[in-house]
Fold this protein.
Amino acid sequence: MPASHSQSGFTLLELAIALVILSLLIGISIAPLSSLIKNNKKIRDEIRLEKLSANLENYALSHGGLPDSEANNELVINTSFPVSVNEYGKHIKYYVPSILTVSSTGGDFTSFCTNLHGVISNPATVSDLPKICHDRTYAAGSCSVASNHSFLVVSTGADQQFFGENADTDSVFYTSDITPSVDNDDVLKSVNLFALAKRCGHVF
């Protein structure tokens, strides 16, 4: 009587089940990894913008004015600002009132501080003055509680869409605590007028 041979291996059903389980495990692991990568990029962007803000302050003091912004509110790349892109390779946005730029002050420190004092005294006369809205009932063009700033630098994350700027382009921004967004990779840094005015020292 011939000996029977037992067959070993996986059936198609077993292979299908194994593939489903494997795909589920991969899907579960990818989501936290993607979130971790995004958060790390945001942290690096926050550090980058902190340094950039400090560089802009120092530039204003040593050059008698803030640098001008280029088309689309981009920062000019030079030796003072060698990095003008975020972690996603997108341009960092730079908002500055023209009256505080080198083009207006002629690179004169006293003129810069005088202009800065004028903006603080009469902010309503400066149409391109960057503001951050702190009004939780904010609607376009009707922010009742806002702080004025000498400049803003913004990283728009991967999609180049910053949800903190309203569509009416009035230079009023709001932060994520006012209007939470699913797009949490945006970063905004600013220096308010009074903080920069203190750097003018004896001029006032």
Notes: Strands lie at 93-95, 131-133, 146-155, 172-174, 187-192.
